[in-house]
Amino acid sequence: MFLPTLPEWLRIIPSSTLFILLLSMSLSLLTALANRLLTNREQLNSWRKEVAKWTEDSKKARKSGDKKLLAKVKRKEKHILSLQSKMMWQSMKVSLLFMIPFFLIWQLLIGFYGDATVAKIPWIDGVWELPLFYWYLLCSFASGTLIMKALGVTPGATE
């Protein structure tokens, strides 16, 4: 199987550091845009509100022992489980779409960098040398959080 290779200069810090940072930001942006385009945010928020209201009523009914409220909660339980299933599908469809491409990119990166240091971060007790996995993870969480917030696709958020 033919795997493309990356230029040798990308193995050297700071090129490797910036490359992984830009790659993680690009993949986070691509994922967030796909999430934004493929997810009906209004419908999802409506479902979240309905599930939250039901959960609140359910807790109140159990705590108070109110039989009338318990019966009402029990009647809606199947509907709420259906909504939760739909919400989970909305969250998972983008992940499923990108799973194989991300896996292939990750395999390429592992093949190229292995366990070599790709970033050095000054810290209180010296310099942290980070291999690919930790540097990508740090960059991905940071950029993903900011990008998702900027595009309004933060999981669990209601608009």
Any key phrases for this structure?
2 strands, about 70% helix, about 160 residues, 4 helices, mainly alpha, two-stranded antiparallel ribbon
Give a short summary of the structure.
The chain has four helices and two strands; from the N terminus they run αααββα.
Explain what you see.
The chain is mainly alpha-helical. It has one domain (8-151). The protein is built from four helices and two strands. It has a two-stranded antiparallel ribbon with strand order 1-2. Helix 1 runs antiparallel to helix 3 (67-113) and helix 1 (15-38) runs parallel beside helix 4. The radius of gyration is 22 Å and the shape is elongated.
- CA-atom Rg in angstroms: 22 Å
Beta fraction: 5-15%
Sheet with the most strands: spatial strand order: 1-2
Task: Find the structural class using helix and strand composition.
Answer: mainly alpha
Give the H and E element order: HHHEEH
Shape: elongated
What is the rounded distance between the termini? Answer: 46 Å
Topology record:
Layout: H1 15-38, H2 41-64, H3 67-113, E1 117-123, E2 126-131, H4 132-151
Antiparallel strand pairs: 1-2
